Amino acid sequence: MSRKDFIIFYTFLILHASVAGQQLASNQSIQAEGIGKPLSTPLFEFRLKYAYAQLQEDLGKVDVSEVRNHFLGREVAIRMHVFEKEYAIRTEPAPGSFSEKIVYRKPVIYHSIYKMDRYYRNLVKKNNILPEVASAEMSKFIELAILLLNEDTEGLEKELLRAENSAMIVEIFKRVIII
User: Fold this and answer.
1) DSSP labels for 122-168?
2) CA neighbor of 175 nearest in space, from 31, 37, 83, 57
3) Model confidence pLDDT, tens digit, residues 141-158
4) pTM of the predicted structure, to 2 decimals
5) Strand 44-46 versus strand 88-91 pairing type
C-alpha cells in the first residue's frame, strides 16, 4: 500500500467514525439497556399514595349507567368517565351561542391520554398486544392522569410535548412513579 493510499484510508476511517459519533449523539431514541426506554426521559416521582386509595374508592362509586362503552372494557370505561369529568370543564352556552364551551385542565396530559387510547386501539386491532394487557396499562395511565390533576407536572408536561409519537408518550407514562 502506497503512502497516498494509506493517508486516504485513515482519513476516511476518521471521518466515518466522527460522522457515526455525531449521529449517535443526536439520536433521541437511544435505547437504554435494551428495555426500550429513551435515555432522555427522566423518572418522575409523585407522593400520592393517600390520593390513590381515595381514587379507588371513588371509582367504585361511579354510576355505571352514565358510563359510555370502551373497546378495552368496563374498567377502562369507568376510568375514562372519571377522567373526562375531572379534566373537562364545561360552561353554559353564552346568549346567542348554541354550544357549550369546553376548557381542559392540563391539556397536555389530557390529549396524551387520548393519544395513548388511539395507540392501544390500533395495537389491539392489529393483534400486536392482548386486550387484557392494553386494558391494564391504559387503566394505570388514566389513574395516573387523574391523580396528577392537582400536582405540579411541569417537567412531565414538557417531556410529553417533546414526545414524537404515542409510543414515546407510553414510555414517559411508564416512568411516572407514585410514592
Assistant:
1) HHHHTTSS-HHHHHHHHHHHHHHHHHGGGS--HHHHHHHHH--SHHH
2) 37
3) 999 999 998 899 999 999
4) 0.72
5) unpaired
Taking 50 as the pLDDT cut, the residues of the chain under it are 24, 26-39
DSSP secondary-structure letter at 100? Answer: -
1-34 pLDDT per residue, tens: 677 766 766 565 565 555 555 554 544 443 333 3
- State which H helix or E strand residue 44 sits in: strand 44-46
Q: How far apart are CA 61 and CA 143, in angstroms?
A: 15
Give the model's pLDDT for residue 131. Answer: 94
- C-alpha grid cell, residue 99: 354550544
Q: Are strands 101-104 and 88-91 parallel, antiparallel or unpaired?
A: antiparallel
Number of H helices, E strands in the chain: 7, 4
Q: Grid coordinates standing for 37?
A: 426506554
Q: At what angle do helices 166-174 and 131-147 cross, to 10 degrees?
A: 70
Cβ(28)–Cβ(38) below 8 Å: yes
